[in-house]
Design a protein that fits this description.
Elements: H1 2-10, E1 27-28, E2 39-40, H2 58-73, H3 76-79, E3 95-98, E4 101-104, H4 121-130, H5 145-148, H6 153-165, E5 177-178, H7 189-195, H8 210-222, H9 226-229, E6 232-234, E7 241-245, E8 254-256, E9 259-261, H10 266-269, H11 274-283, H12 295-302, H13 309-319, H14 337-345, H15 347-350, H16 363-370, H17 374-383, H18 399-414
Antiparallel strand pairs: 1-2, 3-4, 4-5, 6-7, 8-9
Helix pairs in contact: 1-7, 2-6, 4-6, 8-13, 11-13, 14-18, 17-18
């Protein structure tokens, strides 16, 4: 009987669309400081609040400060602060757009009336690990409990201690504006039966190094990197994503909030030096020297920038070990195949012309190269040259995928669109 109920409820799974998000444009201006670039900001970045540790013992202060680092690693401030309306830090109210309505983030300050001031430790652990509120209702998976499930009990209590030490904000939570019947939280049971497995907390792999395990713990848990960088199951159309990652394509790239979250698995990063990858986390710089755009800017500014270098190197070690099946957003479907390969693996350089790379759409930069024929272009793209790594750094791409990307890039630069592409950007 339970299985039948689950199947019926599963019909409503389209509720769990991943975050379509805020269509905000981010632009980084020229770096005028050795450590922190100057932004032309579309939004304001919130400041972490002062802590109240009066009357706390040294051990309690140590726990709170550890919790602060964990909260930064989880980038909690980005979603739980409504910077769109100059909202107070951690007071919630940020609108998360989905195809089925708007979800508003919650107040997580120690307000006893509107926040978590009356939560017991068990309430917090259950919310973070199982996505169930103190009143027993299910949280929408826009809240990444699917990933926070891996956080250890010790770290969860440290996070709670930190949140109890920040200023309480007496701001009432906003009611979600979901289209009926998606406002019925109980229908999430079907999603949970199919996609949520309460396997946490994280279990150390004794076959791996301490650094690798630390990286895995951060990426799989607090960092919830897969939420953006892994394609999700969906119903009927990719716009009806189920916020449920397809594990065979883990970290191999996806779209989020209208931006590309690129492949960050071994196939994309294996040939990139650790020092160059550190520039992403500390200097807002993409591989090849471009500037970050989109949600990753917030992830760096509000989160990764605060992590110790050894944590960042652990993350890099873990990412470089991940072997995933290649995806072009929709698992290698024929339509837009070349375009999707380009977006995932080539756009970082060719969208802006980094290091002299011929720019997408710039006929003048491509015309001299075409005199040697497409065969020569394929050869350069597959084997690399002085300024371009083999296969554009996508070691997991086969030659057919690289040729399709070249066809798309050249076609969109010469007004001869490949037959399998719907449109050029």
């Amino acid at each position: 009987m339970l299985k039948i109920i689950g199947v019926i409820i599963g019909f409503f799974l389209i509720l769990f669309a991943g975050i379509v998000g805020r269509n905000i444009y981010y632009q980084i201006s020229q770096n005028t400081n050795d450590s922190i670039p100057v932004y032309e900001e579309a939004i304001k970045f919130p400041d972490y609040p002062a802590l109240n540790v009066k009357g706390k013992t040294p051990e309690e202060v140590k726990q709170i400060l550890h919790g602060e680092l964990l909260v930064k690693a989880g980038d909690c401030i980005t979603c739980h602060t409504n910077t769109l309306e100059n909202g107070q830090v951690f007071a919630g109210g940020l609108p998360i757009q989905t195809p089925y309505g708007v979800i508003y983030t919650s107040n997580i300050t120690p307000s006893k009336q509107y926040g978590m001031g009356q939560w017991q430790d068990a309430d917090f652990i259950k919310a973070m690990r199982e996505g169930i509120s103190p009143n027993g209702s299910y949280y929408y998976p826009a809240f990444p409990f699917l990933y926070f499930n891996k956080i250890t009990t010790e770290d969860l209590l440290a996070i709670k201690a930190y949140l109890n030490a920040i200023p309480a904000v007496e701001k009432q939570n906003r009611q979600n504006k979901m289209i009926w019947p998606f406002s019925w939280r109980f229908i999430q049971l079907g999603w949970r039966i199919l996609f949520f497995h309460n396997t946490g907390p994280y279990k150390i792999d004794p076959q791996k190094s301490t650094e690798w395990n630390e990286g895995a713990y951060l990426v799989e848990g607090l960092g919830h990197c897969g939420m953006c960088h892994t394609p999700s199951y969906y119903l009927f159309t990719e716009k009806l994503t189920l916020a449920a990652p397809i594990q065979k394509y883990y970290l191999s790239g996806a779209y989020t909030q209208g931006y590309l979250a690129p492949d960050i698995s071994k196939s994309a990063l294996d040939d990139v030096s650790d020092q160059e990858l550190l520039k992403i986390f500390t200097q807002y710089q993409t591989i090849g020297g471009g500037k970050l755009h989109g949600p990753m800017v917030e992830a760096v500014h509000n989160s990764l920038f605060y992590l110790p270098k050894e944590d960042l190197l652990s993350i890099i070690e873990y990412l470089k070990s991940i072997k995933s099946s290649l995806t072009s957003i929709s698992p290698l479907k024929k339509t837009n195949y070349g375009k999707n390969i380009y977006k995932l693996h080539c756009s970082v350089c060719h969208d802006v012309g980094v290091n002299g790379a011929p720019k997408l759409g710039n006929f003048e930069s491509w015309n001299p190269l075409l005199n040697s024929g497409m065969g020569k272009l394929y050869d350069i793209a597959i084997h690399g040259n002085a300024s371009m790594p083999a296969k554009g750094g996508c070691t997991g791409c086969n030659e057919g995928a690289i040729k399709a990307a070249v066809d798309y890039l050249v076609g969109c630069s010469t007004n001869k669109l490949p037959h399998d592409a719907v449109s050029c950007p």
